[in-house]
Amino acid sequence: MYLRLDSQTQEISSDRVFKDRKPELASGLKVFGLCLLILTSCFTALAFGCVRSHLRHYWKICTADSSASTDKTAKIFRKSSGEHELTPILSDTQLSIILKNKNNFLDQNGKPSKDSIYKYINGFRDESGRPLEIEVEDYKSYFQEILESAKSERIKPSIQGGYSFETSLEGETDRTLFPFDHLLKDPINLENFLSLPQECQVYIQTAATENYSDITEIQQFELIKREQNLLNTLNEEARRFFKICMMKANSQNGVSKGFIHFRTAPVGKPIERIYIQMNKNHSHELLKIILEDVGRHPGVLDIKISGPQSAGRTDGIVIYIGSPSKEADETLATKQASKDRDSVLNQLIKIQKEHPHLFNGREIPFKKSGVPGIATIPGLSTSDSFTEKLSQAIAYSLNFTTTETSISPFRESIIDAYTHESWL
In 257-329, which ranges are continuous DSSP H helix? Predict the structure, then answer.
């Protein structure tokens, strides 16, 4: 193959080039066509899989609608090996509450909302969607009492903020727990803050202290829009300081709604969890007893307590049980964790009987509970949030319910969605 240069026009003639490249072009087109065919097949398979998953759930629930069809329903949902671990947790009472109040668990678009169900399970809202009082009034006293009750050379506290990061609480805790307040202790920073327009000052202070636990997506959008409008009114220097203040304010807010961890093992493999619903007005008293009586148990890896914004949530205290080594044999570690869980539960039940006023007596939804304020999820702990995953499974299954749906098919639909993560 060669290129011919036309001496008259000084242009490359393309007819010979095209002729010589015909075999290459034909081969390239074949390869392109094959790739296109493969991609089309993949997309078709994915689409078919999603549609089939939705149709499967719809069929399962809508066809199993009465006690008369119990045998048929059982055949549809029967698992190959025994009862699923979720079954005892998905009680008739709780599932009835969800079905009866389905319209209270919808998002802005009228679809079942994972967040709404999550907030119900964790005690932020009741079944009617009404926010519950789970916040304590004095944040600083709350943190001070918690840290005072947990002083120990053996346990190192850390704070988990709103973005799941953890920061040590050793040394000067004021800078970590109240970063915005700490910023304004500097006279120059305070002067710069007071020089901002009043509207900007109020917005920043609200961002540091307001409880946004129950905020909607529309309200979030409005806040972002308002913040941008405030920024547009400032000069470059004031805008820079405004952003610094907002960073500190958001961090302070995140700490207040996060968790304080008291780890007894720096590295570990959590296998079991125990949830405790504490009396928010006696949280430091209960924590002190638990750290002293339960924290020394060899199977306990971590004990965490919620911040002041959500002290009254149903999982105000969570105890993680498992192996101190991530390399431990899974089968042996699971058996041992089950024994340790029962041992710790016995200790907690004893504490509850001796100090019932330290616990909240409300039911903990979708958990296995023996006594008020204490619950577990035997064999269901993962590295991810169990409640978040369960909420997603319930919300997904609600898409396929009708007024005729009974408890049994709804339960099996949730188990199926949870097991296969059908919402993905």
Answer: 283-293
In 3-state terms, what secondary structure has residue 402? coil
Tokens of 244: 């610094």
Residues with Cβ within 8 Å of residue 229, at least 6 apart in sequence: none
Give the span between the Cα atoms of 397 and 251, in whole angstroms.
36
Mean pLDDT (the chain) is 81
Q: What is the pTM of this model?
A: 0.78
Task: Give dist(CA 279, CA 123) in Å, integer.
Answer: 13
φ, ψ of residue 260 in degrees (nearest 5): -100, 125
Neighbours of 181 (CB within 10 A): 16
Residue 373 has pLDDT above 80, yes or no: yes
Residue 284: strand, helix, or coil: helix
Q: Residue 151 — pLDDT band, cuts 50, 70, 90?
A: confident
Average pLDDT over residues 310-333: 90
Domain boundaries, the chain: 1-55, 86-161+258-403, 174-256
- Write out the DSSP string of 179-239: HHHHHTTSHHHHHHHHTS-HHHHHHHHHHHH---TT--HHHHHHHHHHHHHHHHTS-HHHH
CATH number of 86-161+258-403: 3.30.2430
Q: Both tokens of residue 154?
A: 């053996």
Structure tokens at 77: 């949902």
Q: What is the pLDDT of residues 61-71, one digit of tens each?
A: 444 444 333 33
Cα distances (angstroms) measured from residue 115 to each of 97, 111, 133, 244: 16, 11, 18, 30
Average pLDDT for 85-100? 93
